Amino acid sequence: MSKTPPFHADHVGSLLRSTAVHQAREKYAAGEIDYAALQAAEDAHIRDLIAKQEEIGLKSVTDGETRRAVWSTDFLQELEGMSFAEEQASFGDKTLHPIRHLKVTGKLGFSGHPMIEHFRFLDANTNATAKMTIPSPAMLVSPRRNWREVVDRAAYDRLDTLYEDLAEAYRQAVQAFYDAGCRYLQFDDCAFAFLCDEGIREEVTSRGDDPRALMEGWTELINSVLAAKPADMTITTHMCRGNFRSKWLAQGGYETIADLLFERLGYDGFFLEYDSDRAGGFEPLRRLRESGDQVVVLGLLTTKVGTLEAKDDIKRRIEQATEYVPLDRLRLSPQCGFASTEAGNELAQDEQWAKLKMVVDIADEVWS
User: Fold this and answer.
1) Eight-class DSSP state of 263
2) Which segments of the chain have a pLDDT < 50?
């Protein structure tokens, strides 16, 4: 069994919030409690999450993204040069709470971040490997929004100059997490996976952008960040097609992005969604570089519904994946997080833990 991340039994990161946390957030928003009371409720829940993850045998432990409203905006909005406006939004047929639409209005930079302290709390309360998750830098210009609407032209009139400052901000963020003790960091990314979807590619093309050129730019941006990471730090990515209250936004196999994903991006590991037909087959995995120690984490258990998969079915799919990638370069996880937003997916707490325990049990049987 792997002693370094990503582990043979791993997970994407976000976990369902408790009723106590939901109530505390509502009271804080209404002005009924102060921030210290909210933080105390979150601290207690995170300690419970850590204990449960350790109990079921996970070697990587997260804080469940408990302190966030949305997995991506809570990180990006704290960078220098960012502003935001709260607007009502929808996700498929689901209505969201007002969300923060981010905009670049000044020079991007990094001068500290609340999530550094979030990591320190996590690390101080676990004996396992503390894992931190943040959005990929590509998420600032994700294809679902026209980048011209996200970036004030007075701040940046070209993507390449934007990327230079964004990369430097991320390099400083990575170093700040490292200095705080983080050795396992994950960049969550919808941008690439969305462009696996033919309909979204057509949307991008219709507004005057070249999907391939966008992906090439993201690849250079991300690699310029990864090139500066400390040697003893693992940085992985999770490729997501959308995750809000059990809904998803995109579909399509990885073939469209396979050359960039597996041959050029410098990540240490790839968390890939493989819980349904919308992700396509395992054939694109053949492009994983033969040289190097990059691994693929197969997201074979869904976080969208609570029904527990059959263990033999998961083992069979792992075996199918070995047609393209050696078993020693494969890992197992759920397909996504369980609560990418504070609302969480539509399943119960015990169903969440049953799925994570199954990941651990299967990994023990397959790899040990």
Assistant:
1) I
2) 91
